[in-house]
Amino acid sequence: MKTKLPRRTFLSGTALSVAALGTMGAQPFARAQDGKSPAVVTSGKTVTARDYLKSILYTKDEVKQWLAGKAFPFAKYNSEFGWLLRNARFQDGMDGSTSVYTYGLLDERITIHYKDQPCRINTYGNSYTQCHQVSDGETWQEVLAAHLQEPVRNFGVGGWSVYQAYRRMLKEEQRAPAEYIVFNIYDDDHFRSLDSWRNIRVPKHERFIEPTLPHVVVNVKDGRFEERPNVCPNPESVYHLCDLDWVAEAFKDDFSLKIMLAHLNAKTKNPELAYAEALKLATTHGIVTRIDTAEGLSKTADQLHHQSAYFASQRIVEKIEAFAKAQNKKVLFVLSYPPKSVTRFVTEGVRADQPFVDFLKQRGSPVVDLMQAHMDDFALIKGDLKAYLAKYWVGHYNPRGNYFCAYALMHKLVEMLAPKPPAYRADPAIMK
User: Fold this and answer.
1) Cα 275–276–277 angle (5° rounding)?
2) Which residue, 72, 238, 383, 428, is the most exposed by fewest CB within 10 angstroms?
3) pLDDT tens across 196-206, in order?
4) Which residues on neighbouring strands pair with residue 124, listed in sequence order?
5) What are 394's strand-pairing partners?
6) What are phi and psi of 288, to 5 degrees?
7) How far is the first Cα of the chain from the last one, in angstroms, to the nearest whole number?
8) Does the pLDDT value for residue 38 go beyond 90?
């Protein structure tokens, strides 16, 4: 299937954290099923959970077509992880080119270089791991494999959270184990771990309906971290997302929904009725504040969302490293970012995930920080930032961006590998 979409692609272009709604001037209401008219009227009244959930319901035909593989072609339903990927051809690459996506028997992106050799490197994560917007042979895994002269598996899935990637790691390390794990985390992935139904936070797209997923429930104040399965555990249950009474009951206590409602109600002309609910939520999570303005409401929701998201990721990192230690594996974390985050760091010196970066450093976890790698690279160029970003990104990384990623993590990975990969082994039979 070949699908053409605007250059600002759906995974990087729409998967914004709810916090961004309060700071970036995003449209403060959900869209109706036709995607054209507001489904939630925010002017002059408080938006309730039921109001909002009604606006994002699927139609039965949408669910039927998706499950049958006839609509929303990016992904397919999976009970354990929420979704996996389909073979596809999308006109989403650089210069309007078509990208080819092919997946193997384990739903991994196919291995090309040295595929007949034993594999000791598995990679997990999101669309920056999957390498959305480049064809199969243009991924950073294939760049690595070509240079190292050994295969590198790609278990990345677009739109996934840190928690989904962790869950998949546990499964694939039983079916196709590797001694070395490269675990990629994109800056929205922290927030995604808290989502039980992604459409609460991200609108539907013609390629992807953003279904329910396994997630975590946290409370920083109490040190709470609970793992929760997909609330739609079989294909038939996805039809529940067409039933307002069911979703209203299932998601009435949903954390991401409460954050979304706080931001939505901060945009209304009469947000006072939302203050008490937001204050209760903040207090429950250990944030001492006063909420008596719309700005205060949005800022508190923003603080709570970030605090909870990074806390969740910290606990997941601990679980990843505990698993690796128990299985005698080694993990390299790689942090990825979209152009907007790089732009903010260059122009303001601010990165939202600094608490998480500090956490990794304090633990001594092996990490490749692509934000810093781009800062170092841009400092050498001394050119226009917009032109610099266009060099590497077309929404996600273009082929040149994937080369940048591969070589940014190359040295750290080679340091970890024992024995060294074929490209770095001393061999007296090789001419120098």
Assistant:
1) 95
2) 428
3) 999 999 988 88
4) 183
5) 396
6) -90, 115
7) 48
8) no
Nearest to 18 by CA among 274, 309, 271: 309
Token pair 């546990």 is found at 170
Minimum mean pLDDT range among 186-190, 260-264, 301-305, 368-372: 260-264
Amino acid at 138: E
Q: Cβ distance 110 to 116 under 8 Å?
A: no
At 252, list the tokens.
């009435």
The 10s digit of each residue's pLDDT in 54-64 is 999 999 999 99
The winner for highest mean pLDDT among 230-244, 277-291, 293-307, 372-386 is: 230-244
pTM (2 d.p.)? 0.90
Rounded to 10°, the helix 255-266/294-326 angle is 150
The tokens for 406 are 């591969």
CA pseudo-torsion sign 143, 320, 301, 369: negative
> Which CATH architecture best describes the domain 2-424?
3-Layer(aba) Sandwich (3.40)
Taking the C-alpha atoms of residue 58 and residue 70, their distance in angstroms, rounded to an integer, is 15
Counting every residue written for the chain, the total comes to 432
C-alpha separations of 384 from 276, 372, 374, 389 in Å: 46, 18, 14, 9
Q: Whole-angstrom Cα distance, residue 167 to residue 173?
A: 10
